[in-house]
Amino acid sequence: MTQEGDLPMSDKTDALMVISHATFDYDPQDETTRALDDVSLTIREGDFVCMLGPSGCGKSTLLSVMAGLREPTRGSITFRGQDAEGIDYRRAVIFQQPVLYPWMSTYDNIAFGPRVRGVDHDETRRRVEKYVDLVGLAEFADRPPYELSGGMRQRAALARELVNDPNMILLDEPFGALDALTRVNMQGLLRDIWMRDNRTVFLITHDVDEALMLGTRVFVMSSRPGRIIREETCDFTQSVEAGDKDVMYSEGYLRLRRGILEAVSSE
Ligand SMILES: Nc1ncnc2c1ncn2[C@@H]1O[C@H](COP(=O)(O)OP(=O)(O)OP(=O)(O)O)[C@@H](O)[C@H]1O
Ligand SMILES: [Mg+2]
Q1: Domain residue limits, the chain
Q2: How does pLDDT run across 9-26, given as a tens digit for each residue?
Q3: To test the ligand 1 pocket, which listed residue (23, 24, 26, 31) has its Cβ within 8 A of the most ligand atoms?
Q4: Selection from 223, 229, 238, 219 nearest residue 66 by Cα
């Protein structure tokens, strides 16, 4: 299979992140600890990439490499044309359990990033108010995170990252702990956020429907050590945005869904 990292440079002009032949061993001296095996993937500006794969296959490991939390043992990863070393607020990370400081109000949690980076007071306030509104938390801005529901905390965590105006948002099963209705609402919010500012999103999920209803590119990883074994391109998310609520019952959707489920369960 030709891997994306092998594309000629002319096809990488709008590449935001290029992962090229990345292998990751938790112990570099011990190949049996391999979690990623020769993963190549080019993510372009405006992509909504969804990653599916069996539990323990290496999805979170891949995200941590993409976020700059870990370095690949072999291979390379670039972000905006430069080595993606170390954490960077332009590559925002959202985990399944929202990370918020319990001793700060929701407002102060969201303002934290711009304040630390020295963004001036008025600009910080403008941005925080914008994103507090966008995620529907204006009435709760002065409350501490422990007075918010799980879905509200996850929305606060999203606002806390968006306020830094990231180029790329990396999410690791962010809605896994939420009830079904809240989950659908959060998916809609994420779609809005992606479309509104033409952001680039990388979402790990174990839910095939979530991947198909949100992603423009859906990938499947093999069981550990993770390799990319399938890629699909789809536009159901645009159909949903255009008001087609029945897209998930269409023949094209069901065919793709079946193929992806077969690929995941064959691993
Ligand atoms: N800190 C670590 N040290 C050693 N091995 C690890 C470490 N973290 C993860 N692993 C191993 O690496 C493999 C991939 O783990 P990873 O967390 O990336 O999987 P995943 O695809 O995210 O799984 P899940 O869907 O259950 O979240 C697993 O076999 C796991 O046991
Ligand atoms: Mg994981």
Answers
A1: 4-90+167-265, 101-165
A2: 444 468 999 999 999 999
A3: 26
A4: 219
